[in-house]
Amino acid sequence: MHSPHHLDEMLPRKARLHLLVRDGPVPAPSSARKVQCSACHLRRICLPAGLSESELERVDDRLVTSLRKVAHGQTLFRAGDRFNALFQIWTGFFKTVIGSSQGREQVTGFQMAGDLMGVDGIDMGLHSVDAIALEDSQVCVIAYEDIEALGRELPPMQRHLHRIMSREIVNDHAAMLRLGSMFAEERVAAFLLSLSDRLRTRGFSPSSLVLRMRREEIGSYLGLKLETVSRTLSKFQANGLLFVCQRQIQITDPAGLKHVLDGVTA
Amino acid sequence: MHSPHHLDEMLPRKARLHLLVRDGPVPAPSSARKVQCSACHLRRICLPAGLSESELERVDDRLVTSLRKVAHGQTLFRAGDRFNALFQIWTGFFKTVIGSSQGREQVTGFQMAGDLMGVDGIDMGLHSVDAIALEDSQVCVIAYEDIEALGRELPPMQRHLHRIMSREIVNDHAAMLRLGSMFAEERVAAFLLSLSDRLRTRGFSPSSLVLRMRREEIGSYLGLKLETVSRTLSKFQANGLLFVCQRQIQITDPAGLKHVLDGVTA
DNA sequence: CGCGAACTTGAGGCGTGTCAACCCCTGTGG
DNA sequence: CCACAGGGGTTGACACGCCTCAAGTTCGCG
Questions:
Q1: Of B177, B206, B225, at which residue does a domain stop?
Q2: Which nucleotide shows the minimum CA-to-C1' distance to residue B216?
Q3: Which H or E run includes B164?
Q4: A172 with A246, same domain?
Q5: Same domain flag for B28 and B110
Q6: Are residues B189 and B155 in the same domain?
Q7: Tell me: the pLDDT tens digits for A139-194?
Q8: Structural domain for A248, as ranges
Q9: What residues of B are in contact with residue A124 (Cβ under 8 Å)?
């Protein structure tokens, strides 16, 4: 039924921990005391295209004031915390969670390098979700006032922030479609394809994914129980769509995964 | 079990069609050829607080270029349409729908007077949802370039737009919590309370609501089938929480409705 | 080496979907 | 003025997808 090629790639696991590590040397913003967005490997994601030299200088001067490390399992901010800065992920991986006070939890999203976190706090001046690091991470701290001011001075920056927030809204609508109108298999397929897409955008392999989150967190995000997520992944493997080895997933038949979604997307 | 007071208010139905109509005369922006945001009854919702006289003039001069009527059942824009303007509802009621191409539909939100629509299109330059009028409506058309320019000139306007988009993100997260972590009764209760809240914010009665959407549309928004929505409303009525009369709902026990949510919210 | 967390897999139960009948209200045309 | 058609809503019986509960496995870590 399924073709076992690439199966060798799945073992041994420890040897593949570097799968998602960048392949070139990384300019270290912390080394120079002042953060240099213009030299950052993520500038194509974090900054709008087509900024002039002088504009880039202004960004370097005023945008990122500091770098903050967040250890695996620690929170960057909690629901209810006072809002005054946005956070752009430099390295690492986060989840955002709502309603964690005591009852049920709902994961509202997973964020990776280049993603912006914290815009949920702009409206009320208070954060509305917990942001929790799923691995040791580093984030660029951007004072909200600074990005406001920069947006007024540089129209491309203004447009860029609008686009980021717009994209988050569109993503949330896609999440609502998953949660409201799809079967378990469709939700998991959509989740994997979305993750694969985001990895490709960042220059990583779209077929080799290392999940940074547990089954329970995937389930919360998709409105399923962890057992259902596990069963669904097993079924996909049985159908030859992918190989599962703990948190590493090798997509062998992306077209087949998309086919699971037929009838929903269009 | 339930107390039948206010039952008389439910009949006859035709006599109550004016329930949600404003109680004062409405300044008509279309009468003066130029739209006057500064005189609009919705200015406390559409505009940031604390604008000076001269700033208000600038808003009047440059923000709203035209008014557009959308008949009941017609679309304001469709997914895939080119984006170039935002729409602020002046009168009426809309739903936004994703994935309507042919398969399943997911309602992503309901919008009423004062709500801004169309920000989903900023990112890709294309709208990602259909916006459909649930009753005869009128919307203020705001060219995106104009609101960008105004944001650069007037920091409160810039902040205002950011807050609106942030609020939409927070709302979407609440929707994800409903869809991913709640039982049918909890979803319906949360929906009614949210609607009640938005009506109060606009100065309407929070206990007398006239639903502008069908059961099927409520169900889509909540990830339920119309029969489940209907059954749940009937059960709430049997439990004395509210009275249902077609699309009119009288909330008689808001605390009881909130109690349905206990264990989820906190 | 042994413990615990994360994951997998199976069996059975429950909440919601499915299907269908019926009612109400509205609009239309004879 | 009434007959009729059609859309929206309600309610019931049954089916099914996912949840619940539980046992067993693998992996990581002290």
A1: B177
A2: D8
A3: helix B155-181
A4: no
A5: yes
A6: no
A7: 999 999 999 999 999 999 999 999 999 999 999 999 999 999 999 999 999 999 99
A8: 183-261
A9: 170
- Its pTM stands at 0.89
Q: Which residues contact B29 (CB under 8 A, 6 or more apart)?
A: B35, B36, B37, B40, B64, B67, B90, B140
Question: Cβ of B181 and A102 within 8 Å?
Answer: no
Q: Domain ends where: A109, A144, A177?
A: A177
Comparing CB atoms, the residue among B102, B103, B122 nearest residue A166 is: B122
Same domain, B212 and B140: no
B221 lies in some domain: yes
Alpha carbons A81 and B77: distance in angstroms, whole number: 37
Asked if A166 and B161 come within 8 Å (Cβ–Cβ), the reply is: no
Residue B88 belongs to domain with CATH number: 2.60.120.10
Q: Per CA to C1' distance, which residue is closest to C24? A: B246
Ramachandran category for residue B216: left, alpha or beta (phi over 0 → left; psi -120 to 50 → alpha): alpha
**Residue B4 domain-assigned (yes or no):** no
User: Which residues from B are below 8 Å from A106, CB to CB?
Assistant: 173, 176-177, 180-181
Q: Å from B28 to nearest chain A CA? A: 30
Residue A88 resides in a domain = yes
How many domains does the structure of chain A reveal?
2
Whether B65 is in a domain gets the answer yes
How does pLDDT run along chain B (266 residues), one tens digit per residue? 344 444 444 433 333 333 333 333 444 444 445 678 999 999 999 999 999 999 999 999 989 779 999 999 999 999 999 999 999 999 999 999 998 666 679 999 999 999 999 999 999 999 999 999 999 999 999 999 999 999 999 999 999 999 999 999 999 999 999 999 999 999 999 999 999 999 999 999 999 999 999 999 999 999 999 999 999 999 999 999 999 998 999 999 999 999 999 867 65
- Protein-strand D interface by C-beta, 7 A: A 13-14, 183-185, 219, 223-225, 227-228, 246; B 211, 214-216, 226-227, 229-231, 233-234, 244, 246-247
Question: Contact, A87 vs A118, CB < 8 A?
Answer: yes
In sequence order, the 6+-apart residues with CB closer than 8 A to the CB of A173 are: B98, B106, B108, B120, B128, B129, B172
The identity of residue A92, as a single letter, is G
Minimal CA separation from A128 to chain B, in Å = 7
Question: For A69 and D5, how far is CA from C1' in angstroms?
Answer: 69
